[in-house]
Amino acid sequence: MNSITIGQYYPADSLIHRMDPRVKITGAFLLLIGAFLIESVPGLIFSLLFLGVITALSKVPFRHMIRSLRGIVVILAIAVIFNIFMVPGNAILTMGALTVTDAGLIKAGYMFFRLTYIVAGTSLMTYTTTPVRLTEGLERIFAPLSLIKVPVREIAMIMSIALRFIPVLGEEAQKIKTAQMSRGADFESGNILVRAKSMVPVLVPLFVSAFRRADELSLAMESRCYDPSAKRGSMKPLRFGLRDGLAFLCLGAYMGIMVTIRVLI
């Protein structure tokens, strides 16, 4: 549970931290698109260098980026295994009914890189943006939808609360698991089904805790007369500056290069 990093903020004084959240949200979306444009070694190298430069500018420690990948180890393993054995090609190794192909290994490698690239880029956005600023950015980006009666503010608030509670519930689950282990619970031995069944004593109190926190939050918001439809100001209003414009140009250049590599190579 400690590997959950989505919604966590790493305080630092960096160029990426000071950027407008709208730029970082757009950048994370473009990194997601760019990940699926990677089909060659030059594209892989360029995207890796681009993400490395952004990470260096953010001053987020490398160990934090590695932690963000620990939570998807199972998903990575499943994706890699399926690609290795399910993609047709020249057989390299045969194990009964399963065959490892050269195309499968290449496809699995690209899939592994795409998933890690997406998670690292998304985690970098949440590491460098507070939940409040992230909510403001989402609200500004989707503001045009309010013209067709879409409750943009309510949706942005819900997303912000959800992101904020992911690490909180992760810590709560770890505390419950530790308490259960101190009472003799075993979460490590047995097959997958046995381990899944052993998690029931953790999930039940975790759900109870989640509902309790939700009730406390709703009471706190109600006692403060919170009205999501009312117009609100901001202590630090978003301002789109020169560095944000340059960042958009860099993102545009990144997408242009990625598309060019995909088309020509």
Can you walk through the features of this model?
The protein is mainly alpha-helical and 265 residues long. It has two domains: 15-142 and 238-264, no CATH class; 152-223, no CATH class. The chain contains eleven helices and two strands, in the order αααααββαααααα. A two-stranded antiparallel sheet has the order 1-2. A hairpin with a 2-residue loop joins β1 (91-95) and β2.
Keywords:
single chain, 265 residues, mainly alpha, 2 domains, two-stranded antiparallel ribbon, 11 helices, 3% strand, flat
Quick overview of this protein structure:
The chain is mainly alpha-helical and 265 residues long.
Q: Could you give the topology of this structure?
A:
Elements: H1 15-18, H2 21-35, H3 41-58, H4 62-70, H5 73-86, E1 91-95, E2 98-101, H6 102-127, H7 131-141, H8 152-182, H9 192-198, H10 200-223, H11 242-264
Antiparallel strand pairs: 1-2
Helix pairs in contact: 2-6, 2-11, 3-6, 3-11, 4-6, 5-6, 7-8, 8-10
